[in-house]
């Protein structure tokens, strides 16, 4: 268990505010979701690697009419999500497992800070292929990553993921490497727009759509 998880468990009711405050050091998730909603509408949202549900909360707020599905390989996904279960569902399954169930396609498929927790390129490709397979025609795949260009923020994020989250295999990728991965793994898809989310220039958002 990472240091962060051990500390969080002892915080009780203070866990959520503490987790949100900690996360806000790295990214303004509210702004991320608002900027996404300004770009497009969505009826169904899939988040792959949803974690505790911090991004789920913001996506459901910014897309008030959307149905949200969150999956994660870790146990108890969406544990801290405050949105009604009537419009959210969370499952501890892989993207390939979900894909096999043949879900109704999603208008928006989102991965927020997930790829750098998947060290192996083949596994990244599998998740990306699953993501686009579950995206409806005209839908958007949004990858929010922590770009591996060196900065003070980069060092902070590496230390947080390596020592606080306890992920020994964390592997950040430069934006150029990500683009090359998409080019290779997602033929027929192109980056339709790009964004940067405060407070760090490392927070890049790449939105992919079918050509
Ligand atoms: C930094 S957390 C981000 C959680 C959430 N997206 C957010 O923004 O709050 C990264 C998450 O990715 C999940 N993850 C790692 N590899 C995954 C995979 N192959 N498929 C789905 N989730 C994965 C981890 O379990 C973890 O919950």
From TrEMBL:
Q: What class of enzyme is it?
A: transferase
Q: Which UniProt keywords apply?
A: Methyltransferase, Transferase
Has the keyword rRNA processing been applied to this entry? no
Q: One of this protein's GO BP terms? A: methylation
Domain of life of the source: Bacteria
- Which residue spans traverse the membrane? none
Query: E.C. number, please?
Result: 2.1.-.-
Give GO terms: molecular function aspect only: methyltransferase activity
S-adenosyl-L-methionine keyword on record: no
Q: Where is the Methyltransferase type domain?
A: 46-141
Q: Per its UniProt record, what InterPro entries does this chain match?
A: Methyltransf_12, SAM-dependent_MTases_sf
Q: What is the protein name for this chain?
A: Class I SAM-dependent methyltransferase
Q: Which organism is it from?
A: Actinomycetospora aeridis
Q: What phylogenetic lineage does the species belong to?
A: Bacteria, Bacillati, Actinomycetota, Actinomycetes, Pseudonocardiales
């Amino acid at each position: 268990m990472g240091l962060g998880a051990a500390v969080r468990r002892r915080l009780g009711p203070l866990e959520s505010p503490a987790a949100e405050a900690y996360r806000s050091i790295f990214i303004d998730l509210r702004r991320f979701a608002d900027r996404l909603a300004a770009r497009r509408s969505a009826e169904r949202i899939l988040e792959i690697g949803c974690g505790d549900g911090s991004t789920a909360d913001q996506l459901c707020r910014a897309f008030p009419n959307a149905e949200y599905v969150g999956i994660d390989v870790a146990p108890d996904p969406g544990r801290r999500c405050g949105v009604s279960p009537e419009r959210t569902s969370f499952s501890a399954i892989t993207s390939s497992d979900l894909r096999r169930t043949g879900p109704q396609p999603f208008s928006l498929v989102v991965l927020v800070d997930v790829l750098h927790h998947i060290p192996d390129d083949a596994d990244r490709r599998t998740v990306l292929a699953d993501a686009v397979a579950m995206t409806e025609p005209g839908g958007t795949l949004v990858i929010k990553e922590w770009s591996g260009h060196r900065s003070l923020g980069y060092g902070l994020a590496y230390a947080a993921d390596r020592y606080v989250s306890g992920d020994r295999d964390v592997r950040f990728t430069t934006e150029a490497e990500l683009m090359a991965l998409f080019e290779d793994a997602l033929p027929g898809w192109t980056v339709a727009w790009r964004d940067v989310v405060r407070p760090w220039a490392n927070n890049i958002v790449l939105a992919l759509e079918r050509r």
